Amino acid sequence: MNLLAGIRVVSTALNLPGPAACARLRELGAALAKVEPPSGDPFEQYRPAWYARLHRDVRVLRLDLKSPEGREAMDALLHDADLLVTAQRRAALARMGLDAGQLAERFPRLCHVAIAGHAPPDEDVAGHDLTYLATQGLVQPPAMPLTLFADMAGAERAVSAALAMLLARERDGRGRSITTALADAARTLAAPLHEGLTSPGAILGGGYAGYNLYAASEGWIAVAALEPHFARRLAEALEIPELSIDLLKDRFATRTARDWQLWARERDLPIVAVRTPPTGRKPIE
Questions:
Q1: Closest by alpha carbon to 204, among 234, 233, 231, 224?
Q2: Domains detected in the chain
């Protein structure tokens, strides 16, 4: 898609949320330039293949933004840019001349998404994906989360904020600065839990037979026959009077997960085999 063709984005965001957000903007057609410190982005060291995919077609420059030469080169980039994406703390941005006030004075049409851990006035509080999720009750020790939920959801929030600012600028010609917080993304992800929809035993928390996980003869399946028409068709296809956890346990134990997925696809039913996550990770004793 080239919906953002002609939009120029500059990023100083390291690690995952910023590059993930910028990769999405690039997919939408924006042109990307990323400024990394002379030492590079740590993300490239611990996941080089994923770093390469996220930075495909991104112009990467190594600049020391603490030096006059680096600041001058950065200003040249921002002079022609539509959007700046950062993920540094407020004090660090100020030292580099990139906080909201400084940007508005020098580049009044520039839009700026500042990805932070917490929303103002707590944006300098330390944290990472694990702490944001743990605060919202989205971690069940001793198991670690299977993905970086807050980082990835935060990346999408940053993209939404960027698009909203660019749209607003089309109307009034004025740039803006918005802080998007990863902790807020985690809070949004936790809303179904906090509202009682996915809490243990709730309708989407294992309490309803038609929306549940079941052991097959080999593997597990996820059943999402939530709407009445799906529930009715599933009961009819399995030749049972109604959906109940005990009846479905008995039926689904008779075939493999793959067989049930194929069976369900032929009948337009929302049932899939549960993909087994990669192994090899051991919990801390």
A1: 224
A2: 8-191 (3.40.50.10540), 203-273 (3.30.1540.10)
